[in-house]
Amino acid sequence: MPARSASLALGPLARVAELADALALGASVSGRGGSNPPSRTRTGARVCGTGGRGRTGNYGARMAPVDSALEFALEIAHVGGEIAMRHYQKSLSLQRKADDTWVTEADLAVESELRARVATAWPKHNCLGEEDGFAAADGGPPVAGAPTWIIDPIDGTHNYMAGIPIWGTLVGLQTADGFVAGVCHAPALGETYEGARGLGARMNGNDISSDNVGSLSEATTVFGGGAFVEEKFQPFVDGLLARSWRIRGFGDFWGHMLVARGAAHVMFEPELSIWDTAALVPIVTEAGAKLTHLDGSPWHEQGSCLTTCAALHEEVVALGAGVT
Questions:
Q1: Can you tell me the distance from the alpha carbon of 91 to that of 94, in angstroms, rounded to the nearest whole number?
Q2: How far is CA 271 from CA 62, 95, 225, 253, 305, in A?
Q3: Per DSSP, what are the bridge partners of residue 152?
Q4: CB 3.0 to 4.6 Å from 110: which of 146, 153, 246, 248, for a disulfide?
Q5: pLDDT tens digits for 224-234?
């Protein structure tokens, strides 16, 4: 959900050699998947329930580095989903934040638990969450150059509050190489999306890929906006919707995942924060689609978010030309 601005203060992250001490990433994350992602060699094909409990050692010592990060993200996203489901469709304690969005007791409980697990498993890393901000995993000041786990405890809080099942726990990992692993776990939908640099993308353990249609006239466009659309975006949105074959209104993470799995072809949101997007980037990219700002630049920290199948990206970016 759109929220207050967050500056990661990552600046230029440390050299790959320094990252190797923390996560042993670097050259091993240089590959990118696509419509036909490479096979994984993960031990244990699925992670269900609270499979992460008790597994607090050095993941990198047991399996490939990016693979270990994805394994951990799956584990804690499932933990977060379990906590959220215990509160779902029940009376909730609510608070309105300074940006006029809501936070529930479930958001706070999920983020607190996931931060604790990051601190135990990756004590030399940083953690950024929507509710509690940016800090070292142990709660101190952020560590310059350290990999950062980025958590949205419940993406789609308004849906969650209303009993609409389109919400999820998002976990992403950012390093000097960008967003390298991500998980979107949507327990009320029964869907879990995962992806990591060079390891492909999956939904519920099955490979997914985007659907390359030839033009917007053949495309299903998903739009998360309404009252959130600033006037400057309106001509672009009007043109996009007028040219599309079908239009559906699914906001938050799910619209981007529909593009990744080939059920839709374009998804646009006018304003997202880094916790809304960090988990999405590796999944969308590994599925062969593109996720950028509206001007086509790599998605960074905050702002517009455009996800398309690769074949339509230039056409949609051209429609948004001049929007700043």
A1: 9
A2: 39, 22, 9, 13, 7
A3: 170
A4: 153
A5: 765 556 778 88
Whether pLDDT at 17 is above 70: no
Domains in the chain (CATH in brackets) are 16-207 (3.30.540.10), 216-319 (3.40.190.80)
Model pLDDT, residue 232: 84
The mean pLDDT of 253-267, rounded to a whole number, is 98
Structure tokens at 153: 């405890």
Burial class (CB in 10 A: 0-12, 13-18, 19+), 264: buried
First to last CA, the chain: 21
Strand order in the sheet with 191-196: 133-136, 126-129, 148-155, 168-175, 178-186, 191-196, 201-203, 206-207
Q: Report helix angle 65-87 to 105-121, nearest 10.
A: 150
Secondary structure (3-state) at 175 = strand
Nearest to 287 by CA among 273, 308, 268: 308
Q: Which residues contact 196 (CB under 8 A, 6 or more apart)?
A: 66, 67, 69, 70, 180, 181, 182, 282, 286
Q: Judge whether 161 and 92 are in contact, CB under 8 Å.
A: yes
Residue 239 to residues 223, 243, 270, 317, Cα–Cα distance (Å):
13, 6, 15, 12
Cβ atoms 100, 88 nearer than 8 A? no
Torsion of CA 113, 206, 259, 126, to 10 degrees: 30
pLDDT value of position 224: 77
- Buried (b) or exposed (e) across 167-203, using 16+ Cβ within 10 A? bbbbbbbbbbbbbbbbbbbbbbeebbbbbbbbbbbbb
